[in-house]
Amino acid sequence: MTVPSKTFVVMLCAILGMTIAGVQTIPGWIKSKYATASSDELNAMVRIAQADTFCFGGTGIAAASSPADIMFEHVFFSPKAADLFAWAFEHGTPQGQMFALLGLRHLAPQRCQSLAARLSPSSEVRIASGCIFGKLSAREAFIHQIESGAYDVMVQRMKVHASLDK
């Protein structure tokens, strides 16, 4: 039997710790405000708000989806999606705000524009596209990644896949 390396064990413990920390209890006021949303949708909303990188679609060598990218779909198809994305914008990291604006662009364009106008000019967004990682100001990220429609095809593809699954 091979003994795992110290680095592997440390990384495994870190991933396990992050997974446990990511499973949060949703405060009662959120549950009552979004009563029609399921616990899965509320947990997804919180995970989106806490995103540390804005990327939509596969990234890195393995072309893996980010946790927030995966959670985006759970929120997007919720009956309360626009409200959930608005909450993620209000309480989210700059990266979480980008996911929220992306959802709102497709669900409530006017709401998206009014929230985007409130983006902090000094806020930086960590982004990833394919194997390229970088930072943009929140305003640049919104203009170049969301408003430009760069992810529209992927959102449309997500909608088609969802309709085929029904």
Q: Bin the strand percentage.
A: 5-15%
User: Order of strands across the biggest sheet?
Assistant: 1-2
Main structural class: mainly alpha
Strand-and-helix sequence, N→C?
HHHHHHHEEHH
From the spread of the alpha carbons, the general shape counts as: globular
Uncertain runs are 1-5, 7-27, 29-33
- Please tally the helical runs, counting DSSP H or I stretches of 4 or more residues: 9
Q: Helical percent range?
A: 55-70%
| Radius of gyration over C-alpha positions, nearest whole angstrom | 17 Å
Q: How many angstroms does the end-to-end distance come to?
A: 46 Å
Say how many strands there are: 2
The chain-level mean pLDDT equals: 79
Q: Mind describing the biggest β-sheet?
A: 2 strands, antiparallel
